[in-house]
Amino acid sequence: MVVGRIARVPVSVAPSWALSVVVIGALGVPIIMQAVPSTEPIVAIAVSVLLGILLGASVLAHELGHCLSARLLGMSVVAVRLYLLGGVSELQRVPRNPREDALIAAAGPVVSGVLAGGFWLIARLTEPGTVLWLLLMLLALSNVVIAVFNLLPALPLDGGRVLRAGVWQLTGNRRRGTAVAVLGGYVIAALLAGWAVAVLVADGVGGLLPAGIAVAMALFVAVGAAAERGRRTATAWPAEVTLLSLAHPVAQLPAEAPVEFSLEAAERRSVLLVSHDGVTRGVLDIPAARALAVERPRAPSLLAARPVPPEAIVLADDDPAEVVRRIGGMDSPFLLLVDATGQPSGLLSRVDILAVGGRRPRRGSRTSHR
Fold it and tell me: Per residue in 56-69, pLDDT tens?
């Protein structure tokens, strides 16, 4: 359910989010009553519910950190969704290089860290031992936990995305980075589950709460890692076929070049129109160019160009399965293939990709950051 927009980004809240507020409220009451014995029960309940709501707002701020970083890198943000165990930011396309991947992933924990520091500083201005002081300290501690947990080197967490970016940078292969980060997810999940067992053995019934939290975290990481792995293998893509092998060669021409000249070049390869500073302005639309050439053969080719949307730009070593999913939710009939330096390598036909990937077009392909 969409509850509003922040900086034009739709924010939706799943019904399970309300459950998290109830759980936090229930767990918070005895903590408040024990830490501040003079607190009335009704006040303790109200403060616990407020704590749950403010923690949800903290998670929202964490996700908006991803969104801001993505926008600064020129990526479109589809939506932010909040649910029981956290939230997710949906981006229109996957990052094109390790730097983008790492910067977007790291932005969330940075925001959580800043929030933790801010709540702690405000708490120092209040009287220790009061309900307000306790609320602020719990918010500070919770944001520290959010930041640290998300920095664990495991997909689907932010730390896993940073790990993927590092492996991608070292090997030049994003898929290999994803595989390493997925393995990290399984390792972290196993360690959390093992810690839960150790707590139960050591503390018995008294360890039920921390053990339960650890198991929930382990399940969250394990299920997320399995989903990331599933996204890599869900599409049947022939191992011998690469994106580069499917690409049509391109000729780069000035956007101001006469349309009749561009049509001559288009007989041999696809025409990519660029500005004087080398920025891609569009792809020559042959039917439109022919119609324009009949009346104005010397008109600038840019008048007959189709723009290249950001989500239609892919790297040569991108996971083909990911490309198949992305193009299923796009209107563009082509993708622009670029190399590691950002230079165009060719054009990919939407029809060719879907045919090789064995998929029919579908709507809503996106990537997400938790």
Answer: 899 999 999 999 99
